[in-house]
Design a protein that fits this description.
mainly alpha
Amino acid sequence: MANLTVTIEAETLKQARIEALERDTSVNQMVGEYLKSCVSTRAERLQALADLETMSNDKAMRHSGKRRYVREDLYLRY
């Protein structure tokens, strides 16, 4: 564990303490959980983007074959 010093407005701290009491926890623990959430959410988002890129590349390679498309072919109107 590491210590972190944070400066926040007095009213914000007061409200955070009230919220912590209602949740039967501490402001310190709430901040720690919030930061974990931010980090895991970002990691999950980055992994999802990487997975999407991999799937997109795999699908594009399977269906493109050897044919080369030109703009006119793609926008051809019948």
